[in-house]
Amino acid sequence: MFDDDVEVVDAKPFKMKQGKIGSLHDNRPKTDKDKELAKKVLTFNLEVMKMGHDKPKSVEELEDRFTDYLTKCANEGMPPTVEGLALCSGWARTTFYEIEQGKYNVEFTNTVKKAKDYVCNYDASMATLNKVNAPIYIFRAKNFYDMKDVQEIKAGPMNDPTKPNNENDILSAMPELPENSSASPIEIENIGDFGNQ
User: Fold this and answer.
1) Does residue 66 fall inside a structural domain?
2) What mean pLDDT is reported for the chain?
3) Which end of the chain is more exposed for a tag (fewer CB within 10 A), N or C?
4) Is residue 91 part of a domain?
5) Residue 48 to residue 30: CA distance in whole angstroms
6) How many CB atoms within 10 Å of residue 91?
């Protein structure tokens, strides 16, 4: 594979940076407490995956799976997630999202939306109680629950009191001419619609 004249250099092992935002970090459990948590989460997820051993054959079966998953979350103190719903459903996560959008298997769409709304409500409740980091909630809300930042922009003629809307407004805004003035009144023709400029 290599030419004989290629020299292999002894490279130093790659060391990951830790603790800085945007840097690579080692996510392996470091303490016994971290290892126990990882074990609990992995065991939980394996059990959830077994719930979705195959695709559901009916809406009732899917509802039962979601109920079992959410009950399991409550009993074990694990937060429900959209990913967990997809895992227990028996569909791939992308398929789960497409079913929610009604692209196919539309008989399951309302059930998927209802279960997802339950998880959305859980996330919102935890955020309101200040138990979820705000950026994490915002990310989940935008990416999973179709929420978005909205800026309201009103288009159309503005009701600016300094801009005249018609010729009567212009005439009423003009000062009265003194009686002994030699100035002649201004004649207004073809003004147009000032309110639509």
Assistant:
1) yes
2) 79
3) N
4) yes
5) 26
6) 21
